[in-house]
Amino acid sequence: MERILEVKDLHVSFHTYAGEVKAVRGVNFHVNKGEAVAIVGESGCGKSVTAQTLMKLIPMPPGEIKKGDIIFNGESIVKKSNKEMEAIRGKEIGMIFQDPMTSLNPTLTVGNQIMEGLIKHQKMTRAAARARAIELLTMVGIPQPEKRVDQYPHEFSGGMRQRAMIAIALACSPKLLIADEPTTALDVTIQAQILDLMKDLQKKTGTSIILITHDLGVVAEMCDRVIVMYAGKVIETGTVDDIFYNPQHPYTKGLLRSVPRLDLKRDEPLTPIFGTPPDLLRPPVGCGFTARCESAMRVCQEYDPELKEISSTQRAACWLQHPLAQNRAGS
Amino acid sequence: MIRYLGKRIFFMFLSLFLIVTATFFIMKAVPGGPFTSEKNVPDEIRAALEAKYKLNLPLHEQYLDYLKGIITWDLGPSFTEKSSTVNDMIKRGFPVSAHLGAQALLLAVFGGITLGVIAALKHNKWQDYTAMVIAVLGLSVPGFILASFYQYFFAIKWGWFPIAKWEGFEYTILPSLALSAMPMAFIARLTRSNMLEVLSQDYIKTAKAKGLNTFTITVKHAIRNALLPVITYLGPLVANILTGAFVIERIFGVPGLGREFVLSITNRDYTVIMGTTVFYSIILVAAVLLVDIAYTLVDPRIKLSDTGRE
């Protein structure tokens, strides 16, 4: 399969008053054409930073790409100038943000905000861009698009605004769509609608999607493959089936256990992962999950495990995968 | 909208009425009168003078008389400048004051916004620090000190501009600069802090993710949102410039209305005090209304309505 995106050993740091925060510490993954890949992990694990780095949207400084490369469509993103990035943003890669209430400009009409990208990238006239904006609004399921196109964001509901955001992101038919927690700020029924819409549009347009979320339900519904991140690193990757039915890393298992289940009794307490993620100002030498891991061994504190192949589709970074630890893991 | 405007205009007149009433009675409550400074006026002449200007009537009659005058826009004769009426004085002084005020207003608004935007875009760099030092100086140094400072350096030492008087464009520069310093500094600080807030908003990131360049993002997406609070400030700003002009006009010998206003108070020139106060109040109240209307043009979320729903 053809790879649209490949991230190689990406390191991203932020220089703050307190010191260097190593937000992303060596991330590797790829996205194939037409594929939907999820990046999951708890807050602060580096998933949003990774996503924004793909478009070079992190403020630099204080942010800095320390090491590694991002190959998009055969070209390195890291080396591109700001001017060259402007030609990629919105045109080749679209992005949907978490909170639709704040990610639309309150003083411009929704139509205007959709048209901007079209006028810039596809050199459309205003009239043509407006017609296309109406088309896009129809496509994302907004009723009365001719009227809606001239309305302001405050006249839209939350779900509608997220639909408008999707229309903005898809305006120039990008090859890759990055959705950074697109449903987190919406209520559950709207979440389902937005996910359906995204799935539908993916089928129609064939774009690749990177979905960033901490909601495993969303992942199961939408995605082909899953990347689990923890403390700035990828700790497990695999197909949706691999991750849900055969998780290998204790953190992935913990994540799956912590999902509320309908078949449990109502007074049954949820199963959290205790503790907090490590401070990325002073990242641990060994595996970042050691302090919270039930099966931690002495080696985990001293040495960081590499990603190890479990099957042709699944890989995990855990010392339990080492042949010497196999007995222990089984017990 | 029309209902709202009607309501606003009604309240405008109400506040004008209150201003007139308050000024009238406060003015009368101060001991002394327009003719106390003249030496040894025989009682008969004083009585004749007071009768001529109707100062011998009971207070409430004087008041009603004055109200009638205002409604017909006849502000009465000046007590000290025997040759002209208050209407004449306003006609003479206001164009000068308006010219100075407008020039200062433009300087303050455009200068302040430019400084603020540059400071925000170059946050924590030397441009930011320079702009903010200028702003702090402008805010903390009173206009009259700045005015004397300008006169000393630009007029006396370097001779770039005339020191005082009002005889051509070059005469307007120093007073405009002195008058605009404070509001400009204030607008610069206001714009900077708003820009910084707006630039960290999600919709700026959205705009960036669309591939727009920095210029478009700044002009189209950031400045407009950052200007909302600045517009709110424009109402009080007009007041600021008006009152600031009293002092500045005096220092630079500008024959404007502000000077007349100050002089009239020391001279106890009742009709001029009243006339200029009323005139200034009208300008102020109208400015506030205009600002409110301007607000709706910039921010679509705000609609003028008396119900608050619409």
Automatic annotation (TrEMBL), chain A:
SMART domains: AAA (SM00382)
Alphabetized Pfam families for the sequence: ABC_tran, oligo_HPY
Keywords on record: ATP-binding, Cell membrane, Membrane, Nucleotide-binding, Transport
UniProt xrefs under SUPFAM superfamilies: P-loop containing nucleoside triphosphate hydrolases
Location relative to the cell: Cell membrane
UniProt KW Cell membrane keyword: yes
An MF annotation (GO) of this entry: ATP binding
Limits of the ABC transporter domain: 5-256
Cross-referenced PROSITE patterns: ABC_TRANSPORTER_1 (PS00211), ABC_TRANSPORTER_2 (PS50893)
Coiled-coil ranges per UniProt: none
GO cellular component: plasma membrane
Transport in keyword set: yes
BP GO terms, sorted: peptide transport
Topology versus the membrane: Peripheral membrane protein
Protein family according to the UniProt entry: Belongs to the ABC transporter superfamily.
Protein name, as recorded: ABC transporter ATP-binding protein
UniProt organism field: Brevibacillus thermoruber
